[in-house]
Amino acid sequence: MLVDCSFDIHRSLAMVGESGSGKSLILKALLGLCDRVLDVQLQKRSPFEWIRGKSVALVPQNPFTALSPLTRIEDQMFLDRVRSKELFEMLGLDQALLKRYPNELSGGQLQRVVVAMALGSAPKLLLLDEPTTALDQDSRTMMIEQLLSLQEILGFSLLFVTHDMSVAAALCEDICVLNKGCIVEGGNLNEVIENPKMPYTRQLIEADFKNREYRK
Question: pTM for the full model?
């Protein structure tokens, strides 16, 4: 359930919260994918025409379920060959991967393929549903660097849904903290991390630092 969630997306916004806080539900609401039995009242103002799949695109959490395992990558791009190759080059992907099937690619390669597909329509807003969760540290770092570079080149805004404060801090300028369907804190990301006002936000930050120490 979501209750009176209001937020602005400028250049980059991280939507942070633990599992079940409502992060993915916000993405579904924005994309018009909520179940019809739900009472969804959505108001959005945008400088561009809000068209799912064109001005707004989604990078899902799990690339393995986003692609058909029986179809070559090039036949799932729905782009002309020149544009596909251009996006692959921007994401550091070998052109030969276009001829392969999804199960012949690594998780990091598949995630970058899905990013290329999302960017194919030149969206104004890119929605990212925890795209780094299943990646190892090296692939995660590469994905963050490439997203930042692509944002500079292509000029899109992004909404990044995650439970990982460290990844959010590396990618985004602003933050909204979500708890049980409510936004409990928001603002400049660095300021929130340095001086969290809500106990729940403080707990998320402390838990994230503990996890990073454990991963070391």
Answer: 0.87
